[in-house]
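Q: Okay, next protein. This is GlsB/YeaQ/YmgE family stress response membrane protein from Occallatibacter riparius. I've checked the sequence twice, so it should be correct. Can you predict the 3D structure?
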Amino acid sequence: MGHGIIAWIIIGVIAGWITGKLMKGSGFGFIMDMVVGLIGALIGGWVSSFFGFGTTGSHGMIGSIVIAVIGAVLLTLIVRLITGNRAANL
């Protein structure tokens, strides 16, 4: 069963906030944290389905948040590598 738009916003906010804490940063602000979390959910869902674990929406709310955080961390790493901010990678 998939999530509605409100659930995706909640997942995005939580995943963006957790990613900001994991990546030794203060986050990007409420809106950008949500965007990073939502894009992270897309990336995490793609990686998850690529490895045969199913899509983001098929794991419930907690599973979706975990997958979104993994995707958001990957996104943050890629952005930091591209922008040259390598000192704050981990």
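A: Here is a summary of the prediction. Residues 12-21+30-79 form one domain. The first helix runs from residue 5 to 22.
Q: Noted. On to the next one.
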